[in-house]
Write a structure and sequence with these properties.
60s Ribosomal Protein L30, Chain: A; nucleotide-binding (chains A, B); about 30% helix; Phosphoribosyl-aminoimidazole Synthetase, Chain A, domain 2; globular; homodimer; about 25% strand; alpha+beta; 4-stranded mixed sheet; kinase (chains A, B)
């Protein structure tokens, strides 16, 4: 990149979606106004070249799109509406052309536009090595409607908004150099904002998490935050189409611990389950009952026929294999 | 780092300062509430090892502290109150001990505590190379009080809240391996939140910028955003104590283009200047008149005795020397 100022100019949005925005990019900081009827939501996530993606597993467009998607998914998991995003990009001294960097921003914008979000700030710096992209998302939710992990109660139904394991299967195929029909799960995940909104507006007590680290790990988080035990029923967990071509071990490993599916997993009272199911049906969105909550000490179990076995909190621990 | 979860546990704040905070670290995203009487402010900045700091020019504590300070300075430059911050840390596979990483968070917390800010979120990922720290700050300001760069008008006084050039002098000394009395300007800058608040509450029309890139570059930004010309008077610009030991060329280069001083530079109507000066005096804070605004096409000039010369928009362009 020859000129930082010209580059920033080229990626500065030409228009904005949100009435809440007062002043976007162009001053020391962005200014906006949410209003008294909503609480606010903020989260941040970083993707690093060589760790979260490689140039041969994702295009620059997909990298930008996903860096925003994983944050929007966190807002969805609170039942919120994503509004704004800020982007910090660390650009290696070599190996990335201005055209590729613009593609990253095109990917960010594609997902931002899909949810009518405005990019309101950022930072572009150079680095000696790998590309880093760090995104912060700000959102809102009607007061008191937030869907916390700590909301699960004994007797609740555990639900999931879509099949899991696809992202891990896609990544596995990308890393071995071939392609299967699952790679788009990994490269272009879709945050479940609409589903989160249906749940937030249902007026039911709901616990919720997005599936970034695999449903075993996400269930553990709900279990621990709520002080309950969770049982997942193996036969009820939806798999992507064609998954039975894989060994049952491989399939379950991807489904339970693969992560990066960005579906929503949560719990709702048994008495409200039919209601929730109907709300999803009306909106033509899918939701699956996959287990139940028990009044036992925190832990996650998998039931299969009349057996039950304990699930570890595996998921993706960024540092587990490092030292 | 052996275990990301244990590390995150160790840096999660044990208490919070802000009534606005509903739910901090521990769910998919943070939740807070600002209220109807304020607008909100958001900004983000990244510091990269080898580019913005080196292990031998700054301690881990200072790196964390400064990563937050530069963002708080942006909020100060809007006249706002910093409230919350989110931290994304990319940790190299080797070279940084858990103790050093905790020191980074201790530095963040030291500055955060100084301004009663809460850390409400973050992400900790690994990287194959240099450490990256990316901070987002969220703040607030009373509705309509924001101090934009575009507020300067012909006839305004140009002011500065303190001496500039110290940070560049300190860095220069650090890079050549010795120490002078200026290194703390570089290592431990102090964002001018109090000064920004005095200006915001003054009820005057004020344009404002923080000195991150040097006063020449910051003046250019105000000049361009406001469509006016700015004249800086060489003899009025405050230098750090002892600066006359350096050649006048070196001194001026540091003062005009050094950057990272994080003082505030801005303009106010001549008729309001005495008022502003008195407000600062009352609060025992310094403010210096260093120039004036002219009704000419955008540009920045330096006046010295009866000469005037044009100042380039130099400052620090992260990519200028790279390709």
């Amino acid at each position: 990149m020859k000129d930082e100022f010209a580059f920033i100019q080229s990626i500065t949005p030409a228009y904005s979606f949100r009435d809440e925005l007062i002043n976007g990019i162009g001053d020391d900081a962005a200014l906006y106004r949410i209003g008294a009827e909503c609480d606010e939501i903020a989260c941040t996530d970083t993707m690093v070249e060589g760790i979260h993606f490689k140039k041969d597993t994702m295009t620059p467009f997909q990298i930008g799109r996903k860096a925003l998607a994983v944050n929007v998914s966190d807002v969805a998991a609170m039942g919120g509406i994503p509004l704004f995003y800020l982007v910090s990009l660390s650009v290696p001294n070599s190996g990335w052309s201005t055209r590729q960097l613009k593609e990253i921003y095109r990917g960010l914008k594609a997902l931002g536009d899909e949810f009518q979000m405005d990019m309101i700030g950022g930072d572009t710096v150079s680095t000696r090595s790998d590309l880093h992209i760090s995104v912060t998302v700000i959102g809102k939710i009607e007061k008191g409607r937030r869907l916390l992990r700590s909301n699960a109660r004994p007797g609740d139904v555990v639900f999931l908004t879509g099949p899991v394991g696809g992202s891990a299967a896609g990544l596995s195929s990308l890393l071995s150099g071939d392609t299967n029909s699952y790679i788009s799960y990994h490269q272009e995940p879709n945050p479940r904002v609409k589903q989160g909104r249906i749940l937030a507006k249902s007026d039911c007590r709901i616990s919720l998490n997005d599936v970034s680290d695999g449903i075993a790990s996400e269930s553990h988080e709900i279990s621990e935050a709520s002080g309950v035990s969770i049982v997942l029923e193996q036969d009820l967990i939806p798999a992507p189409e064609g998954f039975d071509a894989y060994s049952s071990f491989q399939r379950l490993e991807w489904m339970l611990n693969g992560g990066e599916d960005y579906e929503l997993i949560g719990t709702v009272a048994e008495a409200d389950w039919k209601n929730v199911e109907n709300l999803f049906l009306k909106q033509k969105e899918s939701i699956y009952r996959i287990g139940y909550v028990e009044d036992k000490k925190p832990g996650v179990w998998m039931s299969y026929k009349d057996q039950k076995f304990k699930l570890d909190k595996k998921g993706y621990n960024h540092f587990s294999s490092k030292e």
